């Protein structure tokens, strides 16, 4: 089949036109979303007032003001330019992605994920410190045992898979390189090849170091982390399942509480009326109708 440069040029032009059309459609869609966000925010401000909007739910409302105003300014700037710069379009896309964070409170799976991550933050901090301590100990030991033994012209590594794969950066010649090497061992990325290289430059007893690290990190620390994640996941799921039930019971509890308050008010009023009648020597002159007028029934209002 013959090749014609003109056809390739036409194909490139066609693809460019299609991309520009898709780009314009996407830009119009983003503009509509920005307008919707702006109208929704203005409606909330008009409903509850600027002061209450700014001071109520401060993080969420102020985040809305900042993100939506930045979006509106960016969209208007992009509309003013015939060919908007790429960085401006990327900014608009990034802001729309950030706006998606607000959807976590309306989408139950996302709410579940955020609640689980928030629950696990203290666990991550503690296990992160534990993992760093383990890394520090093994990196220090590795510096003393394997420091300066891994280099490209080492004759003991000739023909080894370690040299063939080019794993020269995985060494214990300095502390940062030791941490990187331990991370590679933790994710079990050809760890037997790495261990074979270190065994070649020392002796077979070096395998004890790598086996101990594997047992300590992969079989103990990471398994504890996974167990805590599963436990927290179950606890968060139960809490989210109880939320609808508590919301349904809330009106019933509020009505019963209001009813008890009404009964207590009636009792206190009758007691005060009786004491006044004893002091004055007369019977209470108020009727039940007056009492009912003074204290409305709990069903009213």
UniProtKB/TrEMBL annotation:
The family database entries (Gene3D superfamilies) matched by this protein are listed as: 1.10.287.70, Voltage-gated potassium channels. Chain C (1.20.120.350)
Q: Does the keyword Nucleus apply?
A: no
| Protein name listed in UniProt | Two pore calcium channel protein 1
Recorded GO CC terms = membrane
Pfam family, any one: Ion_trans
Transmembrane ranges, per UniProt, are 24-43, 127-147, 175-194, 206-230
* Alphabetical list of InterPro entries matching this protein: Ion_trans_dom, Volt_channel_dom_sf
**The encoding gene:** TPC1
- Its primary localisation, in coarse terms, equals membrane
**What positions does the domain Ion transport occupy?**
25-239
List the top taxonomic levels of the source: Eukaryota, Sar, Alveolata, Dinophyceae, Suessiales
Q: Does the keyword Transmembrane apply?
A: yes
Question: What would you give as a GO molecular function for this chain, any one?
Answer: monoatomic ion channel activity
**Location of the protein in the cell:** Membrane
Renumbered to this chain, region (Disordered) spans: 278-301
- Mode of membrane association: Multi-pass membrane protein
Highest taxon of source? Eukaryota
Q: Which UniProt keywords apply?
A: Membrane, Transmembrane, Transmembrane helix
Q: Which organism is it from?
A: Symbiodinium microadriaticum (Dinoflagellate)
């Amino acid at each position: 089949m013959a090749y014609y440069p003109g056809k390739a040029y036409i194909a490139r032009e066609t693809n460019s036109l299609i991309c520009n059309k898709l780009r314009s459609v996407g830009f119009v869609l983003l503009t509509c979303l920005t307008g919707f966000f702006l109208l929704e925010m203005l409606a909330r401000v008009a409903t509850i007032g600027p002061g209450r909007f700014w001071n109520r739910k401060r993080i969420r409302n102020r985040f809305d003001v900042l993100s939506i105003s930045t979006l509106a300014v960016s969209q208007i700037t992009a509309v003013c330019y015939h060919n908007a710069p790429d960085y401006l379009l990327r900014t608009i896309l990034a802001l729309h992605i950030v706006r998606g964070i607000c959807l976590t409170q309306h989408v139950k799976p996302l709410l579940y994920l955020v609640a689980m991550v928030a629950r696990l933050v203290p666990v991550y901090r503690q296990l992160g410190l534990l993992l760093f301590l383990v890394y520090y100990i093994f990196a220090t030991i590795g510096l003393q045992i394997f420091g300066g033994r891994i280099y490209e012209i080492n004759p003991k590594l000739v023909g080894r898979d370690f040299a063939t794969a080019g794993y020269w950066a995985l060494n214990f010649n300095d502390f940062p390189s030791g941490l990187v090497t331990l991370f590679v061992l933790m994710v079990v990325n050809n760890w037997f090849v790495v261990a074979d290289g270190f065994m070649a430059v020392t002796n077979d007893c070096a395998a004890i170091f790598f086996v101990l690290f594997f047992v300590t990190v992969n079989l103990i620390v990471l398994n504890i982390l996974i167990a805590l994640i599963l436990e927290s996941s179950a606890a968060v799921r139960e809490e989210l399942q109880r939320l609808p039930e508590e919301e349904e019971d809330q009106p019933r509890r509020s009505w019963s509480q209001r009813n008890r308050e009404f009964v207590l008010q009636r009792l206190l009023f009758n007691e005060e009326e009786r004491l006044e009648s004893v002091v004055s020597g007369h019977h209470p002159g108020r009727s039940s109708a007056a009492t009912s007028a003074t204290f409305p029934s709990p069903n009213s209002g």
